[in-house]
Design brief:
Oligomer: single chain
Shape: globular
CATH class of the largest domain: Alpha Beta
Strand content: 5-15%
CATH topology of the largest domain: TIM Barrel
Structural class: alpha/beta
Low-confidence stretches: none
Order of helices and strands: EHEEEEHEHEEHHEHEHEEEHEHHEHH
Number of strands: 15
Radius of gyration: 20 Å
Distance between the termini: 17 Å
Number of helices: 12
Amino acid sequence: MIYDGHAYCLPDLAGAGGFEDPADFRRHLQLATAGMGHSLPPWRASDRAPADTSGLADLSKGWGFAALKDAEFRPGTHGKFEWTVKGEDYVKQLLPPGIAAMSYPAENLVADMDYAGIDRALLQRTPYLGVGNDFVAECMRRFPDRIQALAHVEEWLIAADMRTSIDKVDRAFGELGLSGLQFLPMFLDLKGDGGDWAGPAFKPFWDSVAKHSVPVFFTLGPRGGTGVDGYVAELQSLRQWCERYPDISVVLTHGFSWRDFRDGDTITLPEALLDAAPLDKPNVCLQLVLSVTLGARWAYPMPQFRETLGVLVDRFGIETLMWGSDQPFETLHYTYRQCLDQIRGYADILGQDGVDAIIGGNMARLMNEVNK
């Protein structure tokens, strides 16, 4: 089985995205457009001159709504978002131009999977692509043999409304039949300090997740704009969390923050990062989501990653590694087939059994165990 562990279906990004107030969804999209590193550089609409996103947000204030500026931010078409500063319009290609109507329904994903030769995909979650679990549950319902999906509970609401957050967990797994939880600690601080996700205040929430015996997919980033040190600190928090919940399977989405450790044509992973990552634990895995994170700099088939892959295999073992594409985002740089064939191209490092494990076997084992 070939199992893409990191894909998306998208609601109408010009709509409400599951938020009660569409303006909240627009704020999430503006923050993402200002700060996402894997989209294409922005340009000035009048002459396509290179531009930047400083008119959207002052990210020196941290990853939160306080950083946003009034820029008449708005969705366009064909995967683009637009804004206006001092009478000039600017554009950023956040999604591939094939996302013409600013949505990517399950039918489109399955058609792309068929073309690329992929059997199953797991839908990931992030607030700037919509909240609420019913949308992805419907995608699963329509293609039960092809799509599984992660639940999401708005991180910034957990500490403030623990009871409602726990109810959302119970409904996601008890009623909707979703396949795991996506948790993004960086979104805790959108409206201020959202608390210590690995600390005792969040214990009732995590206890409610644990009773459903589902994996948790963590998307980590530095909190408070503290760079690499902040990222390592988040890995250390995850290690502590794993010690409290040793029976919960964990997946680090995207892998590590690869771009932070790239130097020319090499990646150097600090020993502090490798020590902090809890990949020495038997139920913790690392996603290889490469084309979307590194494809803007390194062309297919990305030979520059070979040495880093060897380090990961030697240090943590092939059984800890899982492939994901970030479909449809990765097609800004690679095709869906290339994203898969890139892993196959590392067969001299992985062996054929290792390739098969990474492009499907490890994910299938994890998700089949969850959904027995």
